[in-house]
Amino acid sequence: MMEIMEVKPFITEEKMATLAQTVEAGLRECAFDNHSTLHPRRLAEIGARQVELYDAFLRSREPDGILAEARALAEEGLGERTVIRITSTLSLFWVEQLARDPDLLREAASATHEYTSLLLEGFMAGREALILKEQERTRLALAAAQESQKRERTAGDKDA
């Protein structure tokens, strides 16, 4: 992990509130790109939670909970496009906010890159786990169907 510079000057309640609104708007735009239907209120909660985690990460650079939270997003059915939208919104936000201060912009970009990398890593791990579970359910269902067909054939052969 990089040496932590003083990043608090660019973190204000006003900027974080603006960021939360921006993330929530992006989530609403991606509402139909998810693997399950999420209520708009839930999308707002997800957006607020992401900004809360991001804010905590900016202040401490501690990754506590980010991977687990991202896995939970995958399990809840958030789509890939939606998660990418969150990461791009976080990245672009500081470019707009700190364009006049290259040192703070560099630090914000670095911290954002670390956060979004963790978010994507956790999300991909969650999606992979879901895919493996689904593959196992499919395998079990196929095995059960094959066993049932085998029993029916065996019973049919005995009747004949």
Describe the protein's architecture and organization:
This protein has 160 residues and is mainly alpha-helical. The protein is built from 5 helices and no strands. The chain has helices at residues 13-29, 40-60, 66-76, 80-97, 102-159. Helix 1 crosses helix 2 (40-60), helix 3 packs across helix 5 and helix 4 (80-97) runs antiparallel to helix 5. The protein starts with 12 loop residues before the first helix and ends with a helix.
CATH topology: Globin-like
Which of globular, elongated, flat, extended, rod-shaped describes the shape?
elongated
Q: Uncertain runs with pLDDT below 50, 5 residues or more?
A: 1-5
Structural class: mainly alpha
Largest sheet: none
Radius of gyration: 22 Å
Q: Please report the total strand number as a whole number.
A: 0
Strand content: under 5%
How many H/I helices?
A: 5
In CATH, the architecture is: Orthogonal Bundle
Helix/strand order: HHHHH
Query: Which CATH class?
Result: Mainly Alpha
How much helix, percentage-wise, in residues? Answer: over 70%
